[in-house]
Specification:
It contains five helices and two strands. With about 90 residues, it is mainly alpha-helical. The protein is globular, with a radius of gyration of 15 Å.
Length: about 90
């Protein structure tokens, strides 16, 4: 195993889950999910971990709620930012 395979940013999966949960029925955004995820992640603090179970075990309910709120805000910002840059998608 290469050293780069042993860790990841915990926020990555949270952002993906949020996008899939809230915007899965909006086909016009599906092609932009990668761009939206990148913008959202650039507005979140990095939180690198080795195993996801470590976060689930050691994180308080308050920390989990705070992280989810940060993700929701970052994804909202990213959707607005990316959509306004796409011709024909902004309202």
């Amino acid at each position: 195993m290469a050293i780069g395979e042993g860790f990841h940013n915990y926020y990555e999966q949270l952002v993906v889950n949020d996008l899939q949960h809230r915007f899965a029925d909006q086909a016009e955004l599906a092609t932009l999910f990668t761009d939206i995820a990148c913008v959202a992640l650039n507005h979140l603090p990095p939180r690198y971990i080795h195993f996801d179970i470590d976060m689930a075990y050691y994180m308080s309910p308050e920390e989990k709620l705070e992280m989810n709120e940060k993700v929701e805000n970052a994804v909202n910002y990213a959707v607005d930012f990316v959509v306004t840059k796409q011709p024909g998608l902004s309202s």
